[in-house]
Fold these 3 entries.
Entry 1:
Amino acid sequence: MTIIWSGMAIGAVYALVAIGYNIVFISQKTFNFAQASLMMLGAFITYVGIVVMQLPWWLVGIMAAIIVGLIAALEERIAIRPVKDMHNLLVTTLGASIILQGVAQLIWGGEPYRVPFFAGDQVISLFGGNVYPVELVLVAVVILLVIGLNQFSKHSLIGIALMGMSEDREAAQLRGVDVRRFAFLAFAFTGVLAGFLGLFVGPKTYAVATLGASLALKGFVVLAIGGFGSLTGTLAGGLIVGLTEALASRYIGADFANLSVFLILVVILMAKPSGLFNRQKERTV
Amino acid sequence: MLALWLKIRALPTWALPLLLGIVLLLLPSLGMNYGMTRQVILTLLLALIVSGLNLNLGYAGELAMGHIAMYAAGAYTAGLIGKAGITEIWVQLLVGALAALVVGLVSGVPGLRLGGWSLAMTSFFLILLIPDVLSIFKESTGGRNGLTGIATPTLFGEPVTENQYYVLVVVIAILWFAFMRNVVVSRHGTAFQVLKQSPVLASSLGISVFRMKLSAYALGAIPAGLAGVLFANLDMFISPEAFTFTVAMTVLAASIFGGSASVYGALVGAGVLQFGLNQATNFQEYGLIITGGFLLFGGVLFSGGIAGVGQKIVRKLDYKAAEQAGRSKGSSAENAVADVEVLQGANLSVQTVSKAFGGNKALSQVSLEAKPGAVTAIIGPNGSGKTTLLNMISGYYETDEGVIALDDLQIQGQPSYKVARSGVSRTFQTPNIPKNLSVIEAVESGRYSTQRASILQAVFRTPKFRRIRREDRSEAQRVLNLVGLGSQLNADADSLPLGNRRLLEVARSLIGSPKVILLDEVASGLDEDELDVLADLILRLREAGLTVVIVEHNFQLVLRLADVIYVLAQGSVMAHGAPAEIEKNPRVMEEYLGIVSDSDGTSLVGA
């Protein structure tokens, strides 16, 4: 059970990355490679705020949200907006993510830092397994976030506008939606989210410069499993990836954790290319 | 100055690179020291990997990062068989390239199924797996500590000296770049560019998108595997350190900087990154930031890289030189009237076809018959399902029900490239013409799948390849004359005016000797003269026996050309018959033409 808990928690982290991907995907049909690197920055800022500056956790969360949100906004301006070709976008957002990783390595070096969780690091016994408070909170946060975002997209005007944009950008524009502004705000929001979530992600993964690369991949696997654009799908994807990784690592060997996840990705792409929670979309001319 | 330029351009394009290769070969005898030789070798190895990536990113249009894994596969294969006593370098190169090819195929198939980000991600994942896989086979690979004890390579049984090894690396690099260059300038290179521009277009020309991308990915594995083998034998030691994420990013940065869509850009990019940045002090600290900067600004600012800038300058100089030479050539066989050969049309029949997108019923129970040697027109207001119907025939959408057949061959449910290969060719509402191709190349791409010459035949320039290339040229010239573009063979296809781009599409759709041709609003945007050429051509195609289907808003043109007219409204056939009947059909006049009773039929609703 301990393994299940830990697998679910790491799965929740991957799902959080995938949610970031999804928000950008829904709002501008592009893919932000740097999403996970933004989360990595969130974890570092949390570390600095709580351990170095000894600030209260809520202030640290707000600080991280603002800083990372600004960085995301900057990324949108220089790495996304001027680029027209989708293939170039993959390259430029990858470039942005490498720069972030490089900056983190320059400032904090290559060693991982332990980030304390504000609600304590006491192990709890639950359903016959040991679990850290942060692991439970991570699972709760991701579920609440998905419910919240789903409600938001169905009931708020902005959410509906976003869904409209994802369906047909031109039609939304004709209905008076400022498509570029919305896309920009949605992008910046993923940064705010990534920064704030550093409070929860940091204690689980530690703050380390190379966090971005591995999170980016696992987040993508979650997305591929759950389906592009499906928020609910990220929950299932996160669960599958997290558990696979934890179980493979425990019962087969640590070297097999990534390999197992890769295998799952391959099987999913071959069997159901559009993901578990998506209808097959037809190509258009 | 310009005269000198013309002389340079008169040399074959491979002359300069070959000269560079010879200079590189001679460098050691000119007294280059060991440190420098090693740098050149490392640059060439990097250039080989970059060149493999370019085939994907620059030509097939897919971002892939797995070349480091293929590089590792080549290196470890060489290391392991070298340790086992097989030191003959040619054998190692062969086996290493094969190992890389296997890694490429296994990782490429799932990633390419989805395209876009999927290949980027699965190939990215591959890099992450390298240390894990090496550590699983710790016994033989040495895991994270690296593989030691690789024996000195031999060539025909003799140990290879340092100088000989340098020559070997340069020769392999020259051979690979010659190989790559021959692929890229051949029809395969054109097909790659079509694919990069638009998978939809590629499949309408009968090109299997998946297969084409996979072959680019697999082909790109070869230089990476070769580089791996050469790397393993350079230091006789390899470890996972040489195959990290950072190295993969250096490769990508070199590709972007040198220009992904070029053959020799890989050398420039590799040279800059190897000599420039890796030498810089503090590279360890700032390396990632610099690499990231290359990617970010390279992607934003110059999408063609250094090679792209070079190509632009060359084109400008060419243009200037041509201007000064007074345009002496080029206007030879201006618009010679070409003959239409006898064409074997096929009976296209659509029976009770329906299609719904979600709750929106786009077509319901549509039946249509287009006969060889006749022009069948489909008209109807916007949103009545005309283009949807064409797309169903071309295989872009699956039918919900009904049958689409060419003579006796049912084609519904077939992928579009197969439909195209069965003889259905088409034009698009918005002309779909790849960038950076000349008019004649763009038209030749229509013959890619009907006349086949393998990539290897292109590399070795076999007689069959040469024959097909000649036929490509003469056929393209012929169909271009048909549409009246015979004098613009070498113009940049993408920058033609709209009317000419439409005519170019018609030429492209004719070159593959189709049985059925679908023309989607081909007359819109044409001026009077072009319209006459087009109308005349359509009538001649009909005479020649082709099955012609046109979707058109210009009612007068339809009346002039069509033998049968089908009127679509809200997804079903409202009326069909000869032009004279349709013209007088009261429902057509009212609903489609918006004419209540006695006017003359010029005010179109849907136009």
Entry 2:
Amino acid sequence: MEERNLTIDLDLFDNIYRNLSVIWCIKMNDIVDINGLIIGHFPFVDIVPYITPFSLALVATIVTFTVFLAISNPEYRSITRFKEDVVRKETVEKKEARFRRFMTILCGVALIGVVTTGDIFNFALFVSLTGISNIGIFAGIKDTHVLDAAFQYGLVLMICSLPLFGGVALILANTGTLSLGVLGNLPSNQIINVGRTLLLIGAVGEGALAPFFATKVEMIRAKGAPFINMMHLSSLMVFTRIIELLLILG
Amino acid sequence: MIGRLFNKLANPDQVPKIFAFVIIVVLLFSLTLSFELNQNQLYPKPAPQVQIELAKKNIDISYNLAPYNRGGLPLDPNNKGIVKSQYYTPYEGWITAYLTPFSEWLRDISYHLGTTIVAHPGGILDEILYYTRGLDTILESTILFAAFTIASWVILNRTGKK
Amino acid sequence: MDPMIDAVVPAVVPQIFINMYPVAIIIAIITAVTGLLGIILAKSDFQKILLIQVVTYAMLLIVAAVGTDLAEALILPGLVVSLAEILVVSEILISREVTRRSEKGEDPRKLKLKFNPIKMEVIKTALPVTSVVTVLYGAILTGFTGGAVAGAGILIYLFVGKLRGFSHNFWEEMVGISGVAWVLWLLGFLLYFLNPQLWLVALFMSGGGIVIKVALKLGLLGMLGREEFNN
């Protein structure tokens, strides 16, 4: 067979990128500068999530918050109306509470991925998952205002998949790699800066933050309070992580 | 004036438009830069039509997989396919030549198998999707799973007929 | 370098991809600007959802311009993310309209769009046993293809004649089982990473998981088709 001859020259490709231990233990200049020493990494072949003291603190926060939300019951909201002599209590139905709890846990898992991942395409996917599970928390509410705000947020999600994945692809084309371990050692240039700007816009949109994000204010008027707080946590974590990522890429 | 501006921003309708506008500005500014592709990419592809020309010359049966022939024999540690991945792993290149019996038969009689995905597990794309970048595929299906859960829940409990 | 290896996996990206890259990026930017301008100018919400597809094409163009096997593999997740988002967002739009109309006091069911499926003789007269055969064949195939074949079997069952034996709740529970199947698929993956010697077990776990998952998704679609419109 011809293939037998083809495998001889494999050494040609054994450049510096291929040695895992070299990259993840010694040559992590930018990541080590920003986050401190790497405590551990999980080599899923090309995608290597890693943990530093900084991301360990973030993971601890997310886990604590998610566990608290997962075991809590939905709020009872007292409603008094003018000219009525009764205080009515409102809460979400049981089925909906269960669904929202599931989406909250999914969002927590996605956030753990966001803060630990070591690959920018993987980061983009985790941020998208955060966005979709955030929408899921609001999908069951029977309120036109909230649904309208959730719909506009969904439109932003769809628009922002362009800057998110486009920015990643520009960086891939310019540097030839997606791994943060390698990207942390490369110098920045103009194209990478465009990619970083696009990544920032994309993460801002998908993570539901943005200083002028009116939809968020509309959405948190929904009832069923504890699960909705996941949205604020996701904004915070996605924003922290994207800043860290931009510093590593730069 | 400023108050009117803020009132406009408070309307959820405006938010997607603002995002769209910002992205347009960034993209138009980036048009002035010179985009160029780095030569040293991971998982490179041969130039278009090269493999199909070789397949027509009948040099080797594996070229009938054109343009996805990456060498090697299926699940054979001594004859692995050539995969230029980011980090080295001893199990890479195992399935770049793996085909189902039906696909093997198709490969034997035609050199257009690479253009179809009929019953075709294995190959370079599956190697990347399911092995070297497997976490991406898990996530991708998780996203689809979350979307299906939300959509089916909304249909079953809100908009569908009960 | 040996021309033979160059034809299989070249050491560097061929010149033709490098020449085409700036052109592809400029086309992608023009596409993106067109789509985004459409979103700024569009009046109706439904129109916006349609126009966002143009933006998604621009995203796929930027990824595809890299022109390696990796880029080809990255297109699939990008496409799936945009598909998932459009699914959720359009469901929320429908839910919003239904809520708005029931708040106004109208009956939302009456305002639903008319759906006229093509009347195909073969769907009504096909043997129900066809679906059993298809599901069994799909289970043997396993994997994504198998799931599609088995799902087609469930669709045939739902379309042929009357629904027998399975209630609305049954299908709702099936959605839950789909989640369990997905977990099975995930565990298969993890096993493959942690201990590649067990690849056969992992393969069967993943293949079995995805066959159930895809089949049930198609079944759900068929159920919705019956539930909502065929009365």
Entry 3:
Amino acid sequence: MNSTGTAVLASAQPPRKLWLDHVQEWLTTVDHKRIGLMYIGYALIFLVVAGVEALLMRIQLSAPDNHFLSPEVFNCMFTMHGTTMVFFVGMPILFGFGNYLVPLMIGARDMAFPRLNAFSFWISAFGGLLLYFSFLGGSGLYGAGSAPDVGWFAYAPLTAKLFSPGHSTDYWTLSILLSGIGSVGTALNLIVTIFTMRCKGMTMTRLPLLCWLYVVTSWLTFLALGPLTAAQIMLCLDRFAGSHFFDVQAGGSAVLWMHFFWIFGHPEVYILVLPAFAFANEIIPVFSRKPIFGYPAMVAASVLIGFISLGVWAHHMFTVGLGPEGNAFFTLATMIVSVPTGIKIFNWLATIWGGKIRFATPMLFSIGFLFQFLIAGLTGIMLSVAPFDWQLGNSYFVVAHFHYVLVGAILYMIFAAFYYWYPKMFGRMLSEKLGKWHFWLFTFGFHLTFDTMHIPGLLGMPRRVFTYPADRGWAMLNQIETVGGFIQAIALLLFVWNMIQSYRTGKEAGPDPWDAWTLEWATSSPPPHYNFAVDPVVHSRRPLWDRKHPESPDTHYE
Amino acid sequence: MSLVSLESASAASAGISSSLTQLRSLAAWASGAPANIFAPQATPAHTIFGLSLLVIAIVTAIFLAVGGLLLYALIRFRSRPGDDAAEPRQIYGSNQVEVLWTVIPVLILVVLFLATIRVISETERARKPANALDVIVLGHQFWWEYRYPKQGFVTANELHIPVSDPKAPRPTYLTMSSVDVDHSFWVPRLAGKMDLIPNKTNVMWLDPQTSGLYLGQCAQYCGMEHAKMLIRVYVDTPEQFAAWVEAQQQPAVNDPRVAAGKEIFLHTACVNCHTVRGTSAHGVFGPDLTHLASRDTIASGVVKNTPANLRQWIEDPDSLKMGSLMPKMNLSPHDLDQITAYMESLR
């Protein structure tokens, strides 16, 4: 019925449009699906850029006392890599999927505030451009360009005018400020959409888990972006108006910045990882052919993670001299997060248990996620032990740990989400053959790089060094990491090729290629502008299961 | 290691030296790197090592249990080619099981937390013995200043401390701060790291049990040459340490053979930043040079303290450490030779 509606609508449109019309349509759109796709496309471009930055660093570190990059350039590279990946890849790609999926999954026709949605996207996008403009204008247009080189958490007082002359740090501050405005707008939009625009019958206890996770992640965004924005404004005032918040020469505090930054920075990790959990909550059940195990426990665990993650920030500061009480408190708080996180892993395991697992590419990436997130969580427990952190903190062990989270868990679930929802977005399947190549090659490269990366940390290699002496025993390990980095890059190219190729020649997907259960699969692929011709009505958490199995609908069991 | 192997190559015949180098690198690989956190030689590092073994044992057990179950489930419950099209039994959850996998992790965490606060307390609440050695550590972009207040001298980049006798411990207390940006003092085989933060004073202590040289480096990004802000800690026997203190307390030697170099040094901008005790050079921005020649390395551990390296450093600091705050002085070759000779005399 829906597809007929689309056909009618399509035939009513003029047959040919100028390319400029298409551009104009995309630039002015307020459709949540188009904005979602723009978020994703924009994030993918930055993913490639920040990936190239990572490879340049890996080449530099592949041999001791190397001269491939100067210290100045290397320091810009890790600052830009981190800032880009967190603010201009991670957040937009996850907001992109949220934008695209949330209204479809709750049976709505758009987000609550479509114009705010467009505004949020464009201001975030402008933030990204501003950050990269610093390569040209970082020292003023008449000087040489210089990108920010203060690290992605930009500890004071390295960001003071005295130590960071020119404007590169100003570009960094302002771009994050702007993207933060967009993030808060989107967070607000997602919360209001989920709270007020659910279709008939969809109570909060029938809400797909993906949407629950987006509620929590949006609240966290809302709460965490405030301190970050405040800190950026204070830094601007220090740099432009002569205030002394972080000016240690005039009695300001370097530790104040750390608190402000990490009270944003740690929830930020959860802002990024909760959407990855969200994808896993949808994909793992469908490919295990069972409903999610322990839905109420999963919701409770997600909300708990949200709350606890607001109280763990100073575990980034165990070496700052917090004193024994502070160190003990933040050790305990950090350990407690692992309880609800553990509940999630166990529930995914129980979902798989007794199922009939189909190893399609989305599930392969989800399985990679499960193992890698388990390891990342366990190295996280090691780091939560304050005395152990005195050794591990700021070493390559930490770099390996958080890349295990950001790549091994989050990026893997993003890949899974692409393979799972690409057919919905474009009406064509991604190639399974290329997908499997992508998975195995990327997994090989990932483990080569990031398993190995733990070891130099244990052998005393601090992060953010542009080179290292030959006598420390780190050279061979770094070389292996570099090889793994390039293998991942090749796998990523396969993925990009798969997306381009399948857009033209992929198998027709139809509305429901995975035999799935949530509402987005009830409409055509790609969905029409208005999503659903008739407002859906649901009676359980899996409306399509009920429709496919009238003999045993979920309503009997929930 | 490359310097060592180069020297040995020139000393011995090519065949022997190459096998020697191979043996050395093998030995280095087997004995671990010089900054291995799992080869502790002082007390905080020892205590942390013990705790870390407990933590690693626990997380390994969790990994094997959960990972094993996951692997088993994936193999056992895979769909097979001959399967019927029927869906598996739909299971929605179980409160008992949820309670089980909430309570067990909580119990594990209680154990882990109790073990952790014990080590935190042992390290951060340790009583300072009256005979402890005090050293003030100041972080600079990109070098370390060490002040020995009771002994009355200042040195840089190479920290000397006495080995501690377990029967009568004599730990070293480091009182730390920074004159510019954040730094972090990390010598993995001696202790965990502690940050040096401007406007803040932190204290850490070391109780080393074995004499020797321990390597580390700055562990908080501090600007362009963060990577070359290396740390060398010499744990001396009590006799060696006493002799070293005695030597450091002396004013600079005044060797008439290098009087010309001294004159040039005192009449250029060198004195704005550097101190040589016993002369009119009182600068405090750069390292104290009173006993420069007694150090094994220059530029915060970047190169060996040889006349050639020292000359290159004075001629163009950026060639050894780009971004170092020491300016290029544009000295004539003659002046360079003279100043290098003078520096080499400052034993």
